[in-house]
Amino acid sequence: MSSGLVESSTTTTDQAMFLDPAIRDWVLFPITVIMVLVGVFRHQLTILMTGEPPKADIKDLRQAKALMRGQVLAQNKSYIPASAFVERKKYLCDAYENGTYLKNKASKEQNAANLMTDPKNMEVMMDGMKKQMMGIVPQTLIMGWIQFFFSGFILIKLPFPLGVRFKQMLQSGIMTPNMDVKWVSSLSWYFINLFGLRGVFSLILGGENSADGTRDMAAMSNMGAMGQQPGQPQDYNKLFLGMKDNLSIIYHEWDLDSIEQRVLVKYGKQPRLFKSARK
Amino acid sequence: MAVSNDSGLKTIAKGVALLAFVCMLHAGYSAREFLLYSKSIGRQDLTLPVEIVFECLAALAVMIAGVVLGVGELKPISYEAEMKRYSIDGMFSRPSFQIYNHRGRFLRPIQPSASVAEK
Amino acid sequence: MSSSLALLAEIRQSSERRPFEVLKLAEPLLNKGTISQAGDDVWLVYEQVFLAAIDEGQIELAKAILITLQKRFSGSQRVKRLYGLVNEAAGHPGESKKLYDEIIEKDETNVLASKRIVAMLKAQGRYAQAIKELVSYLDVYANDFEGWLELAHLYLGQHMYAQAAFCIEEVILLQPANHYYHLCYAEINYTMGRLDIALKEYLRVVELSTDNVRGFYGVKLTADRILDLVKNRPKKDQLHFSLDNVPQQGTLERLSQLATERLVNAYSEANAACRTVNEQWLKE
């Protein structure tokens, strides 16, 4: 009884299937080569279309750096004496309140909607759109092409066994529940290439390339959220006011208030009396 | 002497780690084979035999020890050790603000070596 | 040969100004053409040698290197700046100024050119203008610690200690764990008579950097000074100093003692002359 079961199971695992070498030559290699070529093409196209980065405006920079200054102050406040901190806090809060660092002081009351009309911001957004389109269009085309011509193909047999869980990944597009997971379908081969060619691209095109399609996929799924993307116009007035509130409620404690004790402890002149006052 | 001894120890440790890694792979393979076989003969109790578990854990322990002993010189990670590499001159030099119309050109005889740099 | 490249890289990273050594190391490299062994860093090495050459007044060598760089990176702003530097070193500041103005006109966010303009004012001895220019630069680039450091030194040159202290505070905000800047801050505060802050900052130095000699000298000096003021001087004299936040006398004495001990220890390896000088100073 039991020996019969063993026999039947071995026959199912050793499915006697043979792939026509023509499949390898005319499907497997073409798909791979085309994926690579499309990646290289995308890379070149991106270089061609990006052009020069938009010239930074000194007022934009000033705006951003002013905000950064507030952040730095909030972060490292405890390393400067109280008087120095209070002085800076007062100055920065006033500056934020009055919009000293704003790019357009007149537009202090305007809201974010008007930022869209700024031609430079438009350009930045267009640039992002172009890049995303370039990612999505070719990938969709290739996928459609593969699905149209090669759906239902088995392309390769993996030389090692895998668990049943991989069935979803390796045999998408084929509805055979009993086939061994060693066999990989064409659509799955496409996906494996899509995600696996990153290393190849970074080898042939260098680390910073734009041939890889997966990043665009991630971007696409983020599109719904749309949050604050880099390069998106920001309402600095609001950010400044937020930073001002942030700074004005900060409690300042100089890190060096108990330094005498710490140094004495460090050089072994005093036992560690209290749990050190540092956070 | 001590150095060569040390590097020899490191090579051995790396070899041991590799061996342990192979053992671990073997344990994994055995486990898979065991499960396949157990399923095919219809056995209910699918807990792994103790040898496999032991092999896996022992290989893991040996591998960790081998890797730890086999790595290169450990570097100090304290900020102070890092700062020791910098001198006060370096920290206070402001390269973008250096001035060049100074006495430097009068201090040493000029050695014309310009022609060589052109090739 | 690669060892001299490694040495050059070390000097480059330390950002110390050692032009003579750089030239000495680089000359065989240039002569034999082995400079290309540096791989991707070769252009950085060229730039380094260039800066060393103009520091040493070897304008011809600098110009030759500049031609090489120009061939590789035509149109680069960074190389353009080097032209300005050559002119500065060769004594044609007018040309350089024109070049920098040109760069800035094309791209007003060019940091390097803006900094050079400040440096040129400094070179001409027009410190007030240099300070003004640098302040307006820092109004935009508030997170440029090199700029703040430079401004602090410009102010120090004018004996404007309060302003210098402000600049060093900005530097500390940007790099809070660097003990060299705490040391500088402590020294400025000591100079201004803010002994309480000076003492704490000196202590911070020796906390961050174990057995820092300059830090311990500062601790010793400040602690003894405060003790002297508090114990022996009339209230009237104390008014000149800011002593609001000083620790208790017992702590001060212990700190002074600790500093003495560490300093004696630090010089225990030194030769006899050094040791006696140190001990004499400590006794005073």
TrEMBL record, chain A:
It comes from the Eukaryota. InterPro entries: EMC3, EMC3/TMCO1. It is a multi-pass membrane protein. Its main location: membrane. Keywords: Membrane, Transmembrane, Transmembrane helix. It is found in: Membrane. The keyword ATP-binding does not apply. One of its GO terms (biological process) is protein folding in endoplasmic reticulum. Belongs to the EMC3 family. This is ER membrane protein complex subunit 3. It comes from Coemansia asiatica.
From TrEMBL, chain B:
Keywords: Membrane, Transmembrane, Transmembrane helix. One of its GO terms (cellular component) is endomembrane system. The chain crosses the membrane at residues 12-32, 52-74. The keyword Ribonucleoprotein does not apply. Coiled coil: none annotated. It comes from the Eukaryota. It is a multi-pass membrane protein. It holds the Pfam family MMgT. It is found in: Endomembrane system. Belongs to the membrane magnesium transporter (TC 1.A.67) family. This is Membrane magnesium transporter. It comes from Coemansia asiatica.
Automatic annotation (TrEMBL), chain C:
It is found in: Endoplasmic reticulum membrane. Keywords: Endoplasmic reticulum, Membrane, Repeat, TPR repeat. One of its GO terms (cellular component) is EMC complex. It is a peripheral membrane protein. Pfam families: TPR_EMC2. Transmembrane segments: none annotated. The keyword DNA repair does not apply. Residues 80-189 form the EMC2 TPR-like domain. InterPro entries: EMC2-like, TPR-like_helical_dom_sf, TPR_EMC2, TPR_rpt. Component of the ER membrane protein complex (EMC). Belongs to the EMC2 family. Part of the endoplasmic reticulum membrane protein complex (EMC) that enables the energy-independent insertion into endoplasmic reticulum membranes of newly synthesized membrane proteins. This is ER membrane protein complex subunit 2.
